[in-house]
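Task card 7
Instruction: Convert sequence to structure tokens.
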Amino acid sequence: MVRQRTSLNQQAAVPESPQKQKRKGRTPTEVETSTLGKTLQARGDGKKTHLHSRNTTENYTGHVRRAREWLQRSLENHVADEGTALEETTESYSIEDFYNDPLSKDAFERIPNGRSSEALSLYLAWRGFQTEKVSPSTIEGIRAAFKWHWDSA
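Output:
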């Protein structure tokens, strides 16, 4: 058997003394400086940064902006053409009911109201079938933009 040598410079550790230094914790003043406002701001910045890419957010914002402009023009044109009767009716509602309802002007606001779904379906029909005839993927993008717009309210 071979005897193992112990170094003469090595001292035996005292059982009560820690061999590892403790890490210095945060002081109470550092914790208190973090305010609720800063925390909420950090949460909002994190959502903006990581929820959707910048291009997606810009595209969604553009879809919502264009829909609001369309609704405003549509309501203004209807007021100008008030003398002409619209013949488009379905079993559940008439277009006149939509244009005469005061909630219609706020249909695309941050919080949806009773006319929001109707306004969105009219806008999608106008974009997809009537004037611009955009692709189905654009229609789906507009729908997703409004879902994002109303979910983030």
